[in-house]
Amino acid sequence: MESDIKLTIKGLDSELAHEFGKYINILLSLLNKPERGFDLRRMHRIIVTSDFASELVNFSNERGIGKPITHTNEKYGVAAAQVHILARGDDYEIVPIIDACLATALVDKDYANPIDLSQADAIHILHHEFCHVHDNNKKIDAFGPMLLNQSYVGKDKYCFPLSELCWSEYYANYLSCSSVSDEFLGKIKVSFIESIERAKSEINKEIVSYRMHGDIDQLLDIFARHGSFLPKIASYILGYLDGLQISFEELDSKAAKVLSGSYFEPTWTAMQKALRSMRDKYPDRWKSIAIYKGLSDVMDNYYSVMGLTLNNMEDGIVYVDVPLKPETTPTNPFLSQGLDWFTNVQ
Fold it and tell me: What pTM, to 2 d.p., does this model score?
């Protein structure tokens, strides 16, 4: 762990900031015990803010990213923290950015707690975020400059970043499972099952709309926003299960029945195999970004399951085919359709 970590707190009163700082120091001291083998190098500062979205925009500017960093902010999920990497000379800096709601929940006093977190859950989320710091250090050691400078072409542009996200969430939960409460694990499980029940129908509706407007970029953006949540939340569950060494059936037999036979079950099974294979090689046999290839292939197939088939063209551009299926075909064929409608029926 860095000997002098700067804790920057924005938008909180001094008493809350002081109390939160004490809890952070205690948690970092526990994680930094030699027997844990926890790697907190490159973390020089932690940012806590009452305006999470604006802070991410500021951080985007600091990183020189044209498109601002966003966070999950949907009815089915709201992000409370993120961990980011900055290039610093010949090395890197790892910066956790934490929503103030976590601070209020952690201190557990009479402060507003808009996402209704318990103190135990706040501790676990922070534990999870510091596991991202550990994982990022190992990936920096393995990949070096490739970590931030990797450019993707063709369908890798869509599949590799989603694979990286799934690994990160899987491994952070694998490491932090010791602090998860039954209540919090139950909430994640419910979110996963609801996502299975919701995701395919939502994407089907968007594909029907696409038949009308013909804007494939708009469809892909919506898929990134809503369709990617399902494999992400599945990665959360898979990380907990492998960390706790239990099956989904042992966790909740009723929920396991919802997964069994669903459109997502093959993706779940393939994800589990790919993630375990990556973990078996981690970190000493992680030599290049190609370690994500198996998981990326799973994500490629997931796109197809959801109705979008990605195809690489010779010029490195990806062609997105949206095959006609009964559930994604407008009920009135005489309505004005997007260009792809005619392309696909030739």
Answer: 0.90
